[in-house]
Sequence to fold (307 residues):
Amino acid sequence: MSIKIGIHTGPQDLSMDELLRIWKLGDEAGFHWISVWDHFYQNPLQSRENPCFEGVAAMAALAAATKNVRVGCLVFCSSYRPPGLLVKSMVTIDHLSKGRVELGIGAGWFEEEFREFGYGFPPLGERFEHLEESLQIVRSLLRDPVTSFKGKYHQLDGAVCSPKPFNPKLRIWIGGRGEKRTPRLAAQYGDGFNIPYPSLELFSDRVATMERYCGKFDRDPAEIERSVNIIFAMSANEAAAASKELGPFEAALREGALVGAPAQAIDRIGEFERAGAQGLNIAFRPPVDWEAFQAFIEEVLPVFHGS
Fold:
């Protein structure tokens, strides 16, 4: 089996020491990828007092704490930072990590953090317009000698990104569960397409939509890597699995969760691989079940990455 297994750590409800423990364990164990996310409040929101670290700084800490894994974010909200600033941050982290950065961008959706941190909450169509302008600028700054752009939301006049990324093929990921606009943007601008917490049916539908759009933009669908995030709710053994609960995610996203004992996790990952997923990231929701995580490392990861 060849699907690439990664870890997705929302930097929320955990101390920095706990995050570092996850990151270092993942790096040493042979995971392909570790990512953070871009939120100001915990998700789903239960208390504004719960700790939540900022995404760019967390990603830099992740890069500094690891040596082998790809270092990503799924996904940065395009409205929270000017695209030029985001690119400069990513290039800096890419040099810090010796070329391990993967850049994910999305339209954003978390209304409370939008409004309460001073970004308003534009309608969905406007957020996607903003995202599309950002994607054009990001691609140009990463790859072109000079970038000029005049749009509705952004204007750049002869901007030069120097240095360029340590990895000249630094990839841009489009992330989201949207039915039409997200797959279209992935087909037009993306090097990767990540779908969070989908059922197999939703994953297959979004990938098929993206592939249809590739024809419109004269792109080979094989150029775009496909991955999923799956809530990590696996248990260390059958006995522990019998009493495991998903909490606030149980009703809405159970199909997008890894549940049961290691054998069930292997089967579920295999289903996504057969459906065309090239990467799968286990997403932690605290508190971390460290025993289950160790069981995943010892019993599940070798099945897909070799012993």
About this structure: The longest helix spans residues 124-143. The longest strand covers residues 225-234. Residues 175 and 194 are 5 Å apart (CA to CA). The chain has a mean pLDDT of 94.
